[in-house]
Amino acid sequence: MHSRTSVRGIWFAGLIALLSVSFPLAASADDAGEAAAAAQQPAPTDYRPIRRLGGATRFTRPVNTVGELQKMFSQPRIQTDVRAVLEMDNLGANSAEVNRILGGGMVMETTIAPGTRLEWMALRRAGKPATSRRVQWAGDKPLEGYQFVIDNLTETLTFFVPKICGNVSLMAREPSREAARRAEEARKAEAAKAAAAAAAADAAKKAAADKAAAAAAADAAAKKAAADKAAADAAAAEAARKAAADKAAADAAAAEAARLAAEQAALKIRPFFAGYFGKQQRQYDEDDPAGIGLTMPDNTVTAFGDQLFGLKGGIAVRMSPNWTFNPSLGFAFNLDEGDRTSVFSDVEFTRLFVRGGYVGTGLTLWDFNHGDSFTLGWLGTAGIPIWKSDVKKHQLDFSVEWRQFFDRMSDPDVNYQFWGGIRYLFK
């Protein structure tokens, strides 16, 4: 009895399996709807939005100018870090070119709009170089920075560096445009070669035809040869004329360059003379107590405020386009006490500006003709041009000078000199 029941169970299970294969059950409507909705749903983007840059993860300090960019990316440590982030994307072979472009400032200032995607962006994690891959600028405003392109004949790589953080970023990676251009040029060259071969074949056929008709066209050929010779002679004459004109232009350019060089050499050392009116405030008492000066109502120190007329002469030695070294010698005629007339010498370094103005600083040796009142002092100068001669290269400046004497530094308010006047600078 038990055996018969087992056989029946096995037979029943086999029947159920056969029916389920032959007549499968239909899927539910809910399942079908969910599948259709999943098929129609757009694939989510895998670019992570970023809205702010900078902070502890920035790659470098801000590089707000091309000069700052050059200085930052010329540092060996930064260049090593650039190589590290490029190697993270198998772009290490481009490291030298990327560092050369960034260190040389060979970039274009630009902005990227919100929504712009970047394949990766360099940053720092715990101070070490790293990259954040597949990011999207999602700030409220366009992001300012620098863009440059490298084509290594395998790929064309477009990079972007934000000003705010120096995070070197890869904007686009595409097949090499230069390689495509060269391939197109090669194709055109091959086509031109084929066209030239076809033209040569046509020329050969034409030559054969011309040879057959040579007897009848002998007179025409002679006339054509004469015309060709005349054209060749005219072309040779035109070429000779053009060569002579080019030589004359080159000679003129060389002469102008020599003139400019001579003019610059003539401006290397320029004498100058100056006249000034002003005053000096001096203490001549050797028992001057420190810190008294004119600040105490019972001050007994002898202080003198003398009116001065000064004459000064020297030379301006051009050390660079913007700097000159101006040694000079002068006399300060004391209009109140003639026996206090001072002989002085200045050593001055001057910064020149585009419009001809200048500021300077240096040292002065004041009153070295009187041993008891001789002093070293600080010199400050400034001037602006009031007249220039473009032909003679002369210049007249309004000039002011200030001297702070060192011998009474306890009372600087009564030991100084200043004046203003004009300075005439020769060629």
Uncertain residue ranges = 1-44, 288-296
Helical coverage, percent range:
25-40%
Query: In angstroms, what is the radius of gyration?
Result: 44 Å
The number of strands is 15
- The CATH C-level class name of the largest domain: Mainly Beta
State the end-to-end CA separation: 135 Å
Major sheet? 8 strands, antiparallel, barrel
Strand content: 35-45%
SSE order and pairing:
Blueprint: H1 2-22, H2 29-40, E1 48-50, H3 66-73, H4 76-87, H5 95-104, E2 108-112, E3 117-125, E4 128-137, E5 143-151, E6 155-162, E7 169-175, H6 177-212, H7 218-266, E8 269-283, E9 303-320, E10 323-334, E11 342-352, E12 358-366, E13 375-389, E14 394-405, E15 416-425
Parallel strand pairs: 1-4
Antiparallel strand pairs: 2-5, 3-4, 3-7, 5-6, 6-7, 8-9, 8-15, 9-10, 10-11, 11-12, 12-13, 13-14, 14-15
Helix pairs in contact: 3-5, 4-5
Quick recap:
The protein has helices at residues 2-22, 29-40, 66-73, 76-87, 95-104, 177-212, 218-266; strands at 48-50, 108-112, 117-125, 128-137, 143-151, 155-162, 169-175, 269-283, 303-320, 323-334, 342-352, 358-366, 375-389, 394-405, 416-425.
Q: Could you explain how this protein is built, in words?
A:
The chain is of the alpha+beta class and 427 residues long. It folds into 3 domains: 48-175, no CATH class; 215-265; 267-425, Porin. Helix content is 35%, strand content 36%. It is built from 7 helices and 15 strands. The strands form 2 sheets. Strands 8-9-10-11-12-13-14-15 form an 8-stranded antiparallel beta barrel. Strands 1-4-3-7-6-5-2 form a 7-stranded mixed sheet. The longest helix has 49 residues, at 218-266. The chain is flat, with a radius of gyration of 44 Å. The protein starts with a helix and ends with a strand.
